[in-house]
Design brief:
By secondary structure, the chain is α/β, with parallel strands linked by helices. It contains three helices and ten strands. Pfam families: Pentapeptide.
Length: 164
């Protein structure tokens, strides 16, 4: 089962790399693309952002706490100091995303594809990564600090990351 998820994740990552998602011609307001600071400091807490896509965006000090980001996409984006406490990112995609100094505590990343993403100086207390696909080196790094139990799923962070 885990092998199939890795293969699907790799295929998806290659497709996204070769054919990046674009806002042109799509006509959807849920695709957000910017190379400037348009999103810095924004408050999206508690909002329904199902399927929202953040492509090639620098998100600094953005508040997504308790937002519904199921099926969302962070493609080639920098998330610096972002508050993702309690978000539901089930079946989301974070490809080439850099989570730096962000709060991922009590978040749900079940079945998320998070390949080629980095997690530096993040708080993952109580985060649930069940069946999420991450690079092995990042899992090892996250296991070093993994603790807590997710308040919604009841799954421990260490167990969800399959830490030794």
């Amino acid at each position: 089962m885990k092998y199939q998820q890795v293969v699907v994740g790799l295929v998806l990552a290659i497709v996204l790399f070769l054919f990046p998602l674009s806002a042109e011609g799509v006509g959807s307001s849920s695709i957000r693309r910017s190379t400037d600071d348009a999103f810095n400091g924004k408050d999206f807490s508690g909002q329904s952002l199902i399927g929202s896509e953040y492509i090639n965006v620098k998100l600094k000090d953005v508040n997504f706490s308790n937002a519904d980001l199921r099926g969302g996409v962070f493609n080639s984006s920098m998330l610096e100091g972002v508050n993702l406490h309690g978000v539901n990112f089930t079946e989301g995609i974070a490809y080439l995303a850099a989570f730096q100094g962000s709060d991922l505590s009590d978040a749900i990343f079940t079945d998320a594809m998070m390949l080629r993403s980095t997690f530096d100086d993040v708080d993952i207390t109580g985060a649930d990564f069940t069946n999420a696909v991450l690079d092995r080196l990042e899992v090892k790094k996250l296991c070093d600090k993994a603790s807590g139990v997710n308040s919604k799923t009841g799954v421990s962070t260490r167990e969800s990351l399959e830490c030794p």
